[in-house]
Amino acid sequence: MPHRCDWHTDDPVYIDYHDREWGRPVYDSKKLFEMLCLEGMQAGLSWITILKRREAYRRAFAGFDPEIISEFTEDQVGALMQNSGIIRNRRKIRSIIQNARSFLELEKEQSFSTYLWRIVGGQPITHCYHSASEIPSSSVESRMMSRNLKKCGFSFVGETICYAFMQAVGMVNDHETTCFCYAQIRDQNRLDNHSVKLTDSRYKQDEKNSDHN
Question: Cα separation of 72 and 118, whole Å?
Fold first, then answer.
């Protein structure tokens, strides 16, 4: 049996999430939007509580399509407050709607993915924590992300929520070093970064050759 981070439980849903999703880089803007919203829903609760309701959230919020969510009305908010599949907190429900509107405004200027990933320089940060007790609840980057998102109108995006989000979508590799996922993700990130550098180098060389022709 592979060794996993100490924080995982024996719950099959949690194990699958730990092994297949947590800490693996996500670059799709809509998937990032979904995860940011779900992390916000976690506030004051355990992550497994939200994880087990993820499909219900997807059904309730149109697959986390920002364009559809942005047009939700107060009547729909009222209906969502009767949905037993999600956390029935009016502030949190309205937060997802407002965040969808903020997402669309931001995307008029640049992709949501680019906006978020630039905070870590466009590449995942690999940490070296041996136990869960060493892992912080926030960072310089998560504080910056929180400030930036709030300025853009997002809510439920405090520095702790942002750090949990960064961990989830692979902006940081916070798997414990003894966890089998740690080296797996670290090595894949190195390969991906190397490929990006090679592609960039060839592109620049092609541009240079084109200028000479």
Answer: 30
Q: Which residues contact 147 (CB under 8 A, 6 or more apart)?
A: none
Average pLDDT, stretch 26-33?
Answer: 98
3-state secondary structure of 125: strand
CA distance 5 to 178: 7
Q: Are 63 and 97 contacting, i.e. CB atoms less than 8 angstroms apart? A: no
Residues 6+ apart with CB under 8 A from 158: 43, 146
* pTM of the predicted protein model: 0.89
**DSSP letters of 33-101?**
HHHHHHHHHTTTS-HHHHHTTHHHHHHHTGGG-HHHHTT--HHHHHHHTT-TTS---HHHHHHHHHHHH
Spatial distance between the Cα atoms of 22 and 38, rounded to a whole number of angstroms: 13
Contact 161, 43 (CB under 8 A): yes
Residue 11: predicted pLDDT: 93
- Give the C-alpha separation, 17 to 43, whole Å: 19
Residues designated as active site:
17, 39, 47
* Rounded alpha-carbon distances, angstroms, from residue 28 to 25, 102, 124, 128: 10, 17, 15, 26
